[in-house]
Amino acid sequence: MAVFFEFVTQFADIFSNPYMLLLSVVGTALGIVFGCLPGISSTMALAILLPISFSLAPSEAIIFLMAVFSASVFGGSISAVLINIPGTPGAIVTQLDGYPMARSGRAGEALFYALGASTIGGVIGLIALILIAPIVAGAAMQFRSPEFAMATVFGLTLLAYSTPGATFLGILSGCIGLICGMVGFDSLTDVPRFDFGSSALQNGINLVPVTIGLFGIAEIIRNLNVTSESGKTVTRHIGRIIPPWAEIRRLWKAVLRGSGIGIAVGAIPAAGSAIAVAVSYAQEQRLSPRGKDFGKGVPDGVVAPEASNNAAVGGALVPMMTLGIPGDTMTAVLMGALLIHGLRPGPQLFVEHADFVASVYVGLFVAILLTAAMGFLLMKQFIRLMQAPRHILVVAIILLCVIGSFAIRNNVADVGVMIAFSVVGYVMYRLEIPVAPLAFGLILGPILEENLRRSLIVSDGSWMVFVERPIALAMLLLSLAAVLYPVFGALRPKWAKADVGK
Amino acid sequence: MRIPSVFSALGFGLALGTGAFMAPAAAQDFPSEPITLVVNWPAGGGMDRAGRLVAEYAKKHVDVPIAVINVDGAGGATGVRHVADAEPDGYTVGILGASIISSQYVNQNANAIDDIDYLAFFGPDPAALEVRSDLGVSSVEEFVAKLKEAPGSIKNGNDAPGGVSHIAAALLEAKTGVKLSKIPYQGYAPTVAAVVSGEVNAATLPVHQLIDQHKAGDVKILGVMSTERHFMAPDVPTFEELGIDLVAGDWRALYVPKGVPEERKALLEKMLVDTTNDPEFQAAAQKMGFVITPMGAAETTEFVRKSDAELYPILEEAGLVKVRKK
Question: Both B11 and B113 in a single domain?
Answer without folding.
Answer: yes
